[in-house]
Write a structure and sequence with these properties.
Radius of gyration: 27 Å
Protein name: COG family: RecA-superfamily ATPases implicated in signal transduction
InterPro entries: AAA_16, P-loop_NTPase
Number of strands: 12
CATH architecture of one domain: 3-Layer(aba) Sandwich
Strand content: 5-15%
Largest sheet: 5 strands, parallel
Helix content: 40-55%
CATH superfamily of one domain: P-loop containing nucleotide triphosphate hydrolases
Number of helices: 17
Shape: globular
Structural class: alpha/beta
CATH class of one domain: Alpha Beta
Bound molecules: adenosine-5'-diphosphate, magnesium ion
Distance between the termini: 46 Å
Oligomer: single chain
Length: 402
């Protein structure tokens, strides 16, 4: 039986957890009822479900027979891509896209040949005019135009500026135009600091976060219920807890539980229990690993200073541990919040914001310690790092093991 879960990136899940408000708002935006949400910027951590939500929006636009112009950040020129997709849509909508006329008929009448001229064959028509015509043709049928851009944080600034001018002009002239961009929160913040991104700065901001545990458990239960197998309520709740409501982990926890149950018709609590360590390890590998690799040493020190606390950390304690003054501390606090790595807890406290980030940091710290040992600093340490399951590598134990 095929595993119905979709752990990975950009893979739409069988059951979408916790996005109904965003989806109904988008419906309203398509109907023209929410003009302030016609330009939207989806942001959030890696694996929180930005690409999936953007795809859902695109599907809604397509269902409403809107013309969809998806842009890809990998393209060498964003405006060329916008032009090419606009032309492709125009060819579908424009009755005059191709004019065909008789060029000559022989006496018998059978040798008539037709010459076909493609109105959009040349590249000389200004992009603004093409977009205008597309929006006008779409509006004639009561539809609109949607422009979508994922991974917006990776787009070249100058190119982004150029296409956003076109999009802005288009929105000014036509009612039924929707623009949705999505990107990693930290990258998006940096992008918005840039002077030429006013348009994006003014866009409606949709910040995605985790869903609650009950919703996650229900999504897991429903995903299994759509197959020939079932999952007990306790097992679904436990898998939901392991996911901590984080969308990528919903799929990962569900997928591991599915496999752990083997051929059994029902997934039981015991099947789920044993999967936690594997789920954590994969989360570290696929989500935290890439994020922590690019982290500056100062930010890393800050995060590691938080590991001494079981729960939220007092910012004064962090400053003391780092041996820095509180102002310096608050600079890094702000940056790490932008990076989605920590979040404010109660007044004067912060906590690690993503599930299993603590385990990832502890594993990295141990990994570095092991590298130091391997390089001959101390050969007496015997316990190999790989023997320490992330779930056991908690603060106190970690320090004792040194
Ligand atoms: N609302 C959701 N409910 C359940 N699973 C989801 C949801 N959104 C995303 N996922 C799953 O989470 C993972 C990451 O989704 P993706 O959209 O690629 O994240 P992002 O673009 O934010 O990095 C995928 O495995 C996807 O199937
Ligand atoms: Mg994505």
């Amino acid at each position: 039986m095929v595993n119905p879960f979709t752990p990975g990136f950009g893979r739409s899940p069988a059951i979408l957890a916790g996005r109904s408000a965003a989806l109904s708002d988008f419906d309203a935006a398509l109907r023209g009822e929410l003009p302030e949400q016609r330009a939207m910027l989806i942001s959030g951590a890696r694996g929180i479900g930005k690409t999936v939500l953007l795809s859902e929006f695109e599907a809604k636009a397509r269902d409403a027979a809107w013309s969809l112009l998806p842009l890809h950040t990998g393209s060498s020129s964003l405006s060329d891509e916008l032009r090419a997709t606009a032309v492709a849509r125009l060819r579908e909508l424009d009755p005059d896209a191709v004019a065909s006329h008789l060029t000559g008929a022989g006496a018998s009448g059978f040798s008539a040949s037709r010459s076909v001229t493609d109105r959009y064959a040349g590249q000389d028509e200004p992009l603004g005019d093409l977009l205008d015509r597309l929006a006008a043709l779409a509006a004639r049928d009561g539809h609109g135009v949607m422009i979508a851009l994922d991974e917006v944080q990776s787009v070249d600034r100058a190119q982004l500026h150029e296409v956003s001018q076109h999009i802005q002009d288009l929105m000014r002239r036509h009612g039924q135009v929707v623009f949705v961009a999505a990107g990693i929160r930290s990258g998006v913040s940096k992008l918005l600091d840039h002077e030429k991104t006013t348009f994006l700065r003014r866009a409606h901001r949709l910040e995605l976060g985790p869903v609650d545990i009950g919703t996650a458990a229900e999504a897991i239960r429903m995903t299994v219920a759509d197959t020939e197998r079932s999952i007990t309520p306790e097992a679904a709740v436990r898998a939901g807890e392991i996911s901590q409501g984080y969308p990528y982990l919903i799929q990962l926890a569900g997928s591991k539980a599915w496999r752990a149950a083997g051929d059994a018709p029902t997934i039981e609590l015991e099947d789920v229990q044993g999967t936690r360590d594997a789920v954590v390890a994969e989360m570290i590998r696929n989500v935290h690993g890439p994020a922590l690799r690019d982290l500056s040493p100062r930010k890393r020190d800050y995060l590691e200073a938080m590991l001494e606390d079981e729960g939220p950390s007092n910012v004064g304690d962090i400053a003391r541990r780092l041996g820095v003054d509180p102002r310096y501390q608050s600079t890094y606090r702000e940056r790490l919040i932008e990076d989605d790595l920590i979040e404010p807890a109660s007044r004067g406290y912060v906590r690690l914001s993503l599930p299993y980030l603590r385990e990832a940091l502890e594993e990295r710290r141990l990994g570095r310690a092991a590298t130091d040992l391997d390089s001959g600093l101390d050969r007496t340490r015997t316990r190999p790092v790989t023997d320490i399951a992330p779930s056991r590598a908690r603060g106190q134990e970690t320090r004792r093991s040194r």
